[in-house]
Design brief:
heterodimer, A: ABC transporter involved in vitamin B12 uptake, BtuC, B: 326 residues
Chain lengths: 316, 326
């Protein structure tokens, strides 16, 4: 598009037009690659928001759950199982692990009246356990993840280059977000989820099986995380800590968009992805993460509850 | 736990003669330790002293004031590198330590400002951003971090005719003692009570006349001062510094120590520090499983003993004192 609009041969009289066209091209290039990273952050952020908004728990084990799922897929692929089935089984496995955590650890803790901070720290403990077990079982040596889409094959749209993998990431990110949107807004289960997050005691009185609904929310969140993990694994190398940075970014994006708003998570992630890519391209790759966090801190100082979020009012 | 009859008694550190006896015994045991034990044990004890200072600082922030911070690794790095650069210039150690603590404290004040508007997870991410920023600036600036070889820091010169390991042991022990006593006094002063009021309910605290802005910032500043001191002492013990010592995992370890030791207790901080130092030493053959042990302990502690190791200790004492009645 850019080339068609700005770079018609007849138009390129002076150096100014071609200069402008180069600048635009570069800008679009960075934006597109940022968009494809951002859509993966969106998957991570959506998982975090899904849990936060129904239980007010920040899931610090989110990245590690995704890592477990990805390693599981890696093992399945090693057993010569085709990519499609292993992808699906890994998603279900991740979801199952999250639901098991909810039923086996979180509910007993709630029965013993654990505080909110206590429950958040429980997820931190779970994350540490996963981290240790993954290093113990699969080792800490980085491995390459076999993936049907390649990182090297590129598509050229106008003057903008995007790799097959980047396009796939964008597709999976958008598809995941869309499916989640349909689930939450258009199904009975989604209605129950919204009711539970809106007002737990009222939902219980109305006969909604809130415990099951919350367990499904945990499972869904983990599935989204594993999805992001499997797409990210071929680009980054697979090691026990490969999800730490995407997790922190997804976390930051969710905070920026507002922790209890699903659209906010997507908006925040896309903004973060693009900002990071632009900062990496124009300023310095070394300070990419720093700049991303600076943006978030500035946003938070101006709007403490995030871009689209609404925090609950507090009373004494 | 005990029946307290007057305010004087409440302020007293040691309330029962027998407690005084046991504390005295422990004090002498710790003083005599390096004379009778292998050098390795004294080294581990030194590490525990250093770590306890930082964990106490973190506990003042998390346990007493109720503010979550994941930027502790950043303060640690600031303290350590301030100390490192100053001692390379040749200035005396105590002044360097003071500067290390103050530099970290100043940054703590700076990071504390968002805490006036942000709560819970939002504050966690702002502090996390700070930690990552400090790490990246250090990792990318050779002048600050000392380049690829790391920054070498002159070690402590032995004093009073003691051996090298003994002098560093006593130096850290007395600093640890100083900061522990300071923490005890702080938490039973007006400032400590203001912190606790903010933790329990900040709106209610403000209504009863606690200046929220001042005490939240003060809490951040004091906590980072402690962490900065920990960083400086760590630099002195290790003798070299590199940015990789101060990653996100370091912040998590401090956090774990506070939780396992027990929120809002000074003794708990010491237990917690001992735990996170001793476990990797005991399980040195299974390095990968150390996080698993931390995680499992956290889950057990939170489900069965929310007050941490300190809470378990108090219950044991109560049981023994009342034995055979219950």
């Amino acid at each position: 598009m850019a080339r068609v609009l700005f770079c018609l041969p007849g138009l390129g009289q002076g150096f100014r037009a071609s200069d402008f066209c180069n600048i635009m091209e570069r800008f679009l290039q960075y934006s597109i690659s940022g968009l494809s990273t951002g859509s993966l952050y969106a998957l991570v952020a959506l998982g975090l928001v899904l849990i936060y908004r129904s239980t007010r728990i920040l899931n610090f084990a989110h990245g590690d759950m995704a890592t477990v799922g990805t390693f599981f897929a890696f093992t399945l692929l090693g057993l010569k199982i085709p990519f499609g089935p292993s992808f699906l089984i890994a998603l279900l496995f991740g979801g199952g692990v999250a639901m098991a955590f909810y039923f086996l650890i979180l509910i007993p803790a709630q029965r013993r009246e654990a505080t909110l901070l206590g429950q958040i720290i429980l997820t931190l403990g779970l994350g540490l356990i996963f981290q240790g077990l993954i290093s113990y079982i699969w080792g800490t040596v980085p491995q390459s993840f076999p993936f049907p889409l390649s990182d090297i094959k590129v598509w050229k749209i106008g003057g903008v280059v995007i790799s097959e993998l980047g396009l796939g990431a964008l597709g999976v990110g958008l598809l995941g977000s869309l499916l989640l949107y349909l689930l939450v807004q258009r199904t009975r289960l989604g209605l129950a989820m919204r009711a539970t997050s809106e007002n737990l005691p009222a939902a219980q009185t109305l006969g909604i099986p809130t415990r099951r609904v919350l367990a499904i929310s945990w499972g869904l969140a983990a599935i989204l995380g594993v999805m992001a993990g499997i797409i990210l694994a071929p680009a980054l190398l697979l090691d026990p800590f490969f999800m730490l940075e995407p997790f922190l970014k997804g976390f930051a994006a969710a905070i920026m968009g507002g922790l209890n708003s699903l659209p906010g998570a997507i908006v925040g992630s896309l903004i973060l992805g693009i900002a990071e890519s632009l900062a990496g391209g124009y300023i310095s790759v070394a300070f990419k993460n720093t700049l991303a966090f600076l943006i978030i801190i500035v946003v938070l100082i101006i709007r403490p509850e995030g871009l689209l979020g609404k925090e609950f009012k507090e009373r004494v | 736990m005990d029946l307290i009859e007057s305010y004087r008694e409440e302020l007293r550190l040691i309330r029962k003669p027998w407690t005084g006896f046991w504390v005295g015994m422990i004090f002498f045991a710790v003083i005599l330790l390096p004379w009778f034990s292998p050098e390795y044990y004294a080294y581990i004890a030194t590490l525990i002293f250093i770590y306890s200072i930082g964990v106490q600082g973190q506990n003042l922030l998390i346990g007493y004031t109720g503010q979550i911070s994941f930027g502790q690794a950043g303060f640690l790095a600031i303290g350590a590198f301030t100390f490192g650069h100053l001692s390379r210039l040749g200035s005396p150690i105590l002044i360097n330590l003071l500067c290390a603590g103050s530099a970290a404290g100043l940054f703590g004040l700076l990071v504390g400002f968002p805490s006036l508007r942000l709560k819970g997870p939002y504050l966690a991410i702002a502090t996390l951003g700070f930690g990552i920023t400090v790490y990246q600036i250090l990792a990318n600036s050779e002048i600050l971090s000392g380049g690829r070889m790391g920054l070498s820091v002159p070690k402590l010169t032995p004093f009073l005719g003691l051996t090298k390991s003994m002098s560093i042991y006593y130096f850290n022990f007395f600093l640890f003692l100083f900061f522990t006593l300071f923490s005890y006094n702080l938490v039973s002063s007006y400032i400590g009570r203001a912190f606790i009021a903010i933790r329990d309910n900040d709106i209610a605290a403000e209504v009863t006349g606690v200046n929220l802005a001042r005490y939240k910032l003060l809490s951040f500043a004091i906590s980072s001062f402690y962490t900065g001191i920990q960083g400086g002492l760590y630099a002195l013990l290790m003798g070299y510094l590199e940015p990789n010592m101060f990653t996100f995992m370091e912040a998590i370890t401090l956090f774990v120590a506070v939780i396992i030791g027990g929120l809002a207790s000074v003794e708990g901080s010491i237990f917690g520090a001992a735990f996170v130092i001793l476990i990797p030493q005991i399980f040195s053959g299974y390095k990968e499983l150390v996080p698993v042990i931390f995680g499992v302990t956290i889950i057990i502690v939170l489900i069965f003993e929310p007050l941490g190791l300190f809470g378990r200790w108090m219950k044991m004492r109560l049981y023994l004192r009342n034995w055979p009645f219950r």
